[in-house]
Amino acid sequence: MSEITHRTKTRPVKVGDLTIGGSDEVVIQSMTTTKTHDVEATVAEIKRLEEAGCQIVRVACPNEEDAYAIKDIKAQINIPLVVDIHFNYKLALIAIENGADKIRINPGNIGRREKVEAVVNACKAKGIPIRIGVNAGSLEKHIIKKYGYPTADGMVESALHHIKILEDLDFHDIIVSMKASDVNLAIEAYTKAAKAFDYPLHLGITESGTLFNGTVKSSAGLGAILALGIGNTCRISLSADPVEEIKVAKSLLKAFGLASNAATLIACPTCGRIEIDLISIANEVEEYISKLQVPLKVAVLGCAVNGPGEAREADIGIAGARGEGLLFMKGKTVRKVPEETMVDELKKEIDKLALEMEQD
Ligand code: SF4
């Protein structure tokens, strides 16, 4: 099994009952697509996200109705709620008062010092952090003037500008994102940010696109950053159902050994030796294990020639044989099962192993 790349050292920052930073964990988050003041629709979407494995959820807060809705939403969900605010400090104060677990606001955009102080004091009183969201597309005018166009150095300078405002008020519960839709720019910006300060980093490639292309683009960018040991929480931004963002994030973190509570499917690519309908079986098994919260590795292989040996690291698996399947564990065949029942047999064994792992 490959070793994980340990996270660079960052401060731990509490968000509700979770901690971002200070460990190897990368917390998965997403953002709702509903109108936040439509509490019923927002809660329903958050519940679907929770079930998919979302650990923190963010809602937009463009007006007071949305800020006041935080209370009712919070009462009905189980994961920390982040409220996304642009400029308006009053909305931030209402959201904090109504139970936000974290706010996303750039202190440099709030305006007069008294307003910034009011927000910071409210966060201090409730013990909630602030995420500074640096975005290549909306850098401050003086930074664009200095660098000519959005650069990684300009993004880091912007982050440090907002950080200083908070630090001057003795506020350190800070998380920073350095989003860009250009993958290379994002990689450079996050790499430089990790060297420039030790606040936890929220990873994301912004406006990455539709399900397929956005997944590829986000995985390419975030993969490069994660491989450097950078990043403490991530959001995959897709023009799709946000549940898809969670699926992609889980899969990406699994690929780096960074998801300690998710099962993985190993499936062969198939070739001329195939003996079973592998693609539909693989999809069925993948769906079945998607809700498991243990690091079980399951393999589904088209034939027994290279099968069990190819998937030695799997805890359990099946390999197709003519008219039957071979059930194997850790590379060793344990028994033969008829083709018609092999998926059910595999599921039963998966349940047993998952239960054992949960009880360990
Ligand atoms: Fe081909 Fe068998 Fe390997 Fe699948 S497991 S790729 S069917 S040899």
Automatic annotation (TrEMBL):
<dbReference type="GO" id="GO:0005506">
    <property type="term" value="F:iron ion binding"/>
</dbReference>
<feature type="binding site">
    <location>
        <position position="310"/>
    </location>
    <ligand>
        <name>[4Fe-4S] cluster</name>
    </ligand>
</feature>
<protein>
    <recommendedName>
        <fullName>4-hydroxy-3-methylbut-2-en-1-yl diphosphate synthase (flavodoxin)</fullName>
        <ecNumber>1.17.7.3</ecNumber>
    </recommendedName>
</protein>
<keyword id="KW-0560">Oxidoreductase</keyword>
<feature type="binding site">
    <location>
        <position position="271"/>
    </location>
    <ligand>
        <name>[4Fe-4S] cluster</name>
    </ligand>
</feature>
<keyword id="KW-0004">4Fe-4S</keyword>
<dbReference type="GO" id="GO:0141197">
    <property type="term" value="F:4-hydroxy-3-methylbut-2-enyl-diphosphate synthase activity (flavodoxin)"/>
</dbReference>
<dbReference type="GO" id="GO:0016114">
    <property type="term" value="P:terpenoid biosynthetic process"/>
</dbReference>
<comment type="pathway">
    <text>Isoprenoid biosynthesis; isopentenyl diphosphate biosynthesis via DXP pathway; isopentenyl diphosphate from 1-deoxy-D-xylulose 5-phosphate: step 5/6.</text>
</comment>
<comment type="function">
    <text>Converts 2C-methyl-D-erythritol 2,4-cyclodiphosphate (ME-2,4cPP) into 1-hydroxy-2-methyl-2-(E)-butenyl 4-diphosphate.</text>
</comment>
<dbReference type="InterPro" id="IPR058578">
    <property type="entry name" value="IspG_TIM"/>
</dbReference>
<dbReference type="InterPro" id="IPR004588">
    <property type="entry name" value="IspG_bac-typ"/>
</dbReference>
<comment type="similarity">
    <text>Belongs to the IspG family.</text>
</comment>
<dbReference type="GO" id="GO:0046429">
    <property type="term" value="F:4-hydroxy-3-methylbut-2-en-1-yl diphosphate synthase activity (ferredoxin)"/>
</dbReference>
<feature type="binding site">
    <location>
        <position position="303"/>
    </location>
    <ligand>
        <name>[4Fe-4S] cluster</name>
    </ligand>
</feature>
<feature type="domain" description="IspG C-terminal">
    <location>
        <begin position="265"/>
        <end position="352"/>
    </location>
</feature>
<keyword id="KW-0408">Iron</keyword>
<keyword id="KW-0479">Metal-binding</keyword>
<dbReference type="GO" id="GO:0051539">
    <property type="term" value="F:4 iron, 4 sulfur cluster binding"/>
</dbReference>
<dbReference type="InterPro" id="IPR011005">
    <property type="entry name" value="Dihydropteroate_synth-like_sf"/>
</dbReference>
<dbReference type="Pfam" id="PF26540">
    <property type="entry name" value="GcpE_C"/>
</dbReference>
<feature type="domain" description="IspG TIM-barrel">
    <location>
        <begin position="10"/>
        <end position="250"/>
    </location>
</feature>
<keyword id="KW-0411">Iron-sulfur</keyword>
<feature type="binding site">
    <location>
        <position position="268"/>
    </location>
    <ligand>
        <name>[4Fe-4S] cluster</name>
    </ligand>
</feature>
<dbReference type="InterPro" id="IPR058579">
    <property type="entry name" value="IspG_C"/>
</dbReference>
<dbReference type="GO" id="GO:0019288">
    <property type="term" value="P:isopentenyl diphosphate biosynthetic process, methylerythritol 4-phosphate pathway"/>
</dbReference>
<dbReference type="InterPro" id="IPR016425">
    <property type="entry name" value="IspG_bac"/>
</dbReference>
<keyword id="KW-0414">Isoprene biosynthesis</keyword>
<dbReference type="Pfam" id="PF04551">
    <property type="entry name" value="GcpE"/>
</dbReference>
<dbReference type="InterPro" id="IPR045854">
    <property type="entry name" value="NO2/SO3_Rdtase_4Fe4S_sf"/>
</dbReference>
